[in-house]
Amino acid sequence: MKPLQASSGDLNADRRADYAEMLHAFGDHAAAAELLLGALELAPQWATGWFRVGEMQEAAGAPDLAAQAWRTVLKLDSADRLGAALKLQLIGKAPVAAAPPSAFVETLFDHYAESFDQSLVDKLGYRLPEFLDQAIRAARPGRFPLVLDLGCGTGLMGQRLRPIADRLEGYDISASMLRKARAKGVYDLLVKADLQDLAYAGRKADLVTMADVFIYVGALEAVVRTVAGMLAGDGLFAFSAEKLAAGELAGSGDFALQPSRRYAHSQSYIRRVLAANGFSILSLETSVIRQDRHQPVEGLVVVASLSSNT
Fold first, then answer.
1. Which contiguous run of DSSP H or E holds residue 38?
2. Which one of 26, 113, 140, 258 has the minimum C-beta count within 10 Å?
3. How many other CB atoms are found less than 10 A from the CB of residue 165?
4. What phi and psi, each to the nearest 5 degrees, are found at residue 6?
C-alpha cells in the first residue's frame, strides 16, 4: 500500500492547494473547494487532496459534492486511512457502521504519537488514567498477577497500572504509539494488535483495562466478548466510554458516531452488553474525561467483575 501523501507531488498543484487553504481559513469555502479541484486536475490520484475538497464542500453547505469527493477517496484508498467512510456516515450518505476502518485508527494514532501525551494531558486536561486507577483500587485493593492494557497507546494508563501489576502487557494497533510506550519502560510485553480481531492465546488475566478505546469501536458486543474470554474467574474489566447525551440521535439508541469521528455510548447499552457477557458492575461513574474544542467531554468510568462461572 502506498503511503498517504501530504503533498500532491506536483509543485503547481501544491501551490493551488495552499491558496485554497487560505481561502478556506478566511471562510470562502466554495471558492477554496473550486481552487483545490483545479489542483486535483494536475494530481488526480492525491487522496488527501480529495479528502480536503470534501471538507471544504461540506463547510460550503454542499453535502452532495462533499460525498462525491469522499467516495473518490475510497476509490483511491480502499483501506480508508483518512476515514472518508465516517465522513459519509456523518452527513447521512452512508449507514452508520459498527466500527471505524482499522486503517483509519492506526493512521490517526501513528500521526499523533509524537505529540500525543503533551496534547492530551497538557492541552485537553486528560485525567482518565487517574480516574480508572482510583476506581480499580477502590473496587479491589492490592496487586494483580497479570494485567492486560488493551489500546495502551503511549502508556499513560500503563504508568498508573505498573505499581499494582506483577506483569503488565500492552496491546495497540499503532506501531508509533508502541514505540513511545516502550520508551517509558513500564510494560513487560508490548504487542501490535487490532482489537477488533484480537486473537489472545496467553494465560487468563486478572485485570483488563481499556482507557479511551471504546470511542474508536462503536458496537461493543464482539470486543466485550473477547475481553470476557481473556479474564480469569472474578477478573476485573476497567474501561471508559464517552457518554451518549440524552436526546442525542443514535439510531438504535445504543451508540452514535459524533462529528469528532468518535463514538459515544449509552449507559443502558453498556450495562446490557456487560450483563450478556457475564459481568457484574462494581462501579460506574460519570466524569469529565477531557476537553474538546474548549467544551467538557463527559465519560463513563466503569469497573466490572467477571462471574467465576462464566
1. helix 29-42
2. 26
3. 24
4. -70, -30
